[in-house]
Amino acid sequence: AGVKEDSFNMLDLAEYTKNRPWWRKVFAPSSGSSAEKYNVATQLVIGGVTGWCTGFIFQKVGKLAATAVGGGFFLLQIANHTGYIKVDWKLVERDVNKAKQQLKFHSSGNKMSPEVKSRVDEVIIFLKKNVILTGGFAGGFLLGMAS
Questions:
Q1: pLDDT digit string (tens) for 76-135?
Q2: Ramachandran bin of 97, using left for φ above 0, alpha for ψ from -120 to 50, beta for the remaining angles
Q3: Is residue 74 part of a domain?
Q4: How many structural domains comprise the chain?
Q5: In whole angstroms, what is the distance from residue 135 CA to residue 144 CA?
Q6: If residue 132 lies in a helix (H) or strand (E), which one and from where to where?
C-alpha cells in the first residue's frame, strides 16, 4: 500500500494584507472614521439600515426569550404544585442573599478592570469619530424596535 502525504497550503495573513490594499482599508484597526470614507447621507443610510435590522431582530429575540423564560417558570410552578419536583426555598433564599452580597461588594468598589476600561475607551473613541453613523444606527434601532 502506498503512503499518501497530504499537503496543506498555509496562508500568512500578514503577507496577504500587505498585497491587498482593499483588505487593509476595510479591516485595519487604524482605518479611521467613517466620516473620512463616506458622505453624510451614506453614513445615515448605513447606520439607519443596520440599526433598524438590529432593533427588529432584538425585538423578535426578546419576545422569544421572554416567552421561553415565562413558559419555563410556569411549567416549573405546575411541576412544583403537582409534586413532580420539590423546591428547597431555604436554599433558594440563601443563594439569592449570597448573590445580593456579591453585587453590593462589586458595585461598591466602582473599579473597572483594565481590560473592560480599555474596551470602553475604544467604544467611546469610535462613537466620537463616527457620530453621524452612530446617530443613524440609534434612530434605525428605535424604528426597528417599534416595528
A1: 888 888 888 887 889 989 999 988 887 776 666 556 667 777 888 888 888 888 788 888
A2: alpha
A3: no
A4: 1
A5: 14
A6: helix 131-146
Query: Which has the closest alpha carbon to 146: 59, 64, 53?
Result: 59
Give alpha helix (H) positions in 3-130.
Answer: 13-19, 21-27, 34-37, 40-82, 89-109, 114-129
Q: How far is CA 41 from CA 16, 44, 50, 51, 126, in A?
A: 33, 5, 14, 15, 19
Tell me, yes or no, whether 72 lies in a domain: no
- CA dihedral of residues 114, 119, 123, 128 (deg, nearest 10): 40
φ, ψ of residue 71 to 5 degrees: the values are -65, -40
Residue 121 domain-assigned (yes or no) = yes
Instruction: Supply the pTM of this predicted model.
Output: 0.47
Q: Is residue 113 part of a domain?
A: yes
Q: Residue 123 sits in which domain range?
A: 88-131
User: What pLDDT score does 26 carry?
Assistant: 55
